[in-house]
Amino acid sequence: MLQPLPPQWSWGGGGGRLWLPAILPDFSKAMSRAGTSQFQEVIRQELEYSMKEELDKILATAPSNELEHTKKDLDGFKKLFHRFLQEKGPSVDWGKIQRPPEDSIQPYEKIKARGLPDNVASVLNKLVVVKLNGGLGTSMGCKGPKSLIGVRNENTFLDLTVQQIEHLNKTYNTDVPLVLMNSFNTDEDTKKILQKYSHSRVKIYTFNQSRYPRINKETLLPIAKDVSYSGESTEAWYPPGHGDIYASFYNSGLLDTLIGEGKEYIFVSNIDNLGATVDLYILNHLMNPPNGKQCEFVMEVTNKTRADVKGGTLTQYENKLRLVEIAQVPKPHVDEFKSVSKFKIFNTNNLWISLSAVKRLQEQNAIDMEIIVNPKTLDGGLNIIQLETAVGAAVKSFENSLGINVPRSRFLPVKTTSDLLLVMSNLYSLNAGSLTMSEKREFPTVPLVKLGSSFTKVQDYLRRFESIPDMLELDHLTVSGDVTFGKNVSLKGTVIIIANHGDRIDIPPGAVLENKIVSGNLRILDH
């Protein structure tokens, strides 16, 4: 027997349908108040019905040439929204989390010790490189795709990627293609720039990840009124995280095309991870498994440092390898999750995945990824949520998944101008698109660099360095406030430079700062 409606809810909205007021704070609280499971089911069904009605209205505004594509996107969103309503929350059962068995995370040295096959070209020709290219450069103060930001000698992330693959194809006389997963935010600008690579020895394909509607946090309905995503409508849509790669790659038809060309594995990574280059030893391990059992999914992990405590970690959960992200951890266990001693590794998001397995699982609707609920506040103050998934979370859906504990050098992400300073410096040398730590650096660890808010935007950062300092002997750099660097500055040991509000510090050309703290005012003017 259904219980009576809580007093703050009423029947209305026409046709005797349940009306959910705009003051609904969020779905989980509504569920806890609702009482019986039967009544909860009524609420779920009502929310799904309202969502379907709104999505149908949006679909009706699609022009005929976009109809099929829009329908696929909205169908994918409907499935995700259905799961969001069914699931009880992000927490995992902490009691079931175990350390992975010894053999499920292999040290890279063991993989490398197997050597390379006599015919490297034969394994390379079965590989496709996929770069996740959906992000904008807004966090670094740049317009357009992040992949088009210059990172080294005028080369962009995309330039370096193309150079790496071209070098492989020329060296081994192979045909390794590059596939870019764009988002509706990056697709147009990326396609314009691809013309410059038309004469390079790399086939480049693109496909777009889905475009999903943002939903109002209170009504749980889309804020979009039609399919347009220009002008004011841009804020109504979002790309739903890189977990969307499986469905959108499959739906694009490109997955089948590449399988038809004899390709067997994709190497997937973020385009801003400059350490994510094709590794022939890992590829050989996949193509020639030592036990004869095909491994469908490899996740590269690396040892945590204090800077990585929030990174997702590989665990054993219900007899499967499982990626656990910090958002899924029950609050009482967050500190334990961050512990470097208990969870020693984190996910680099460098993944090697079997194409035929993606096709099989996609057709069986069997790829299971936890939903990430990402709350945001739009410029006008509206609170919305985005439902997203992460590509690595699918590890538990594949057979014989494996973690490989790789050197830290394979994780070199550029998320901030502090990271950019490192990769632009003489700490790294550039060869055929790949960055390697300079042999002149006496220890292999990367210095800790923290540039203050005056350096956040790439344009401001570049203006504050006449040339990039010598950092070969640097351990730690902190810069705060209005600080500029002259030419040929050398930084060694621990250097802290703090200009207080209203002060300015100009580090003079040729200065050598070793284990120094600089504060107050320092300006050297030409006479």
Automatic annotation (TrEMBL):
Keywords: Nucleotidyltransferase, Transferase
Record-linked InterPro entries: Nucleotide-diphossugar_trans, UDPGP_fam, UDPGP_trans
Reaction catalysis annotation: alpha-D-glucose 1-phosphate + UTP + H(+) = UDP-alpha-D-glucose + diphosphate
UniProt pathway annotation: Glycan biosynthesis; glycogen biosynthesis
KW Transferase (keyword) present: yes
Subunit structure, as described in the record: Homooctamer.
Family: Belongs to the UDPGP type 1 family.
Designated name of the protein: UTP--glucose-1-phosphate uridylyltransferase
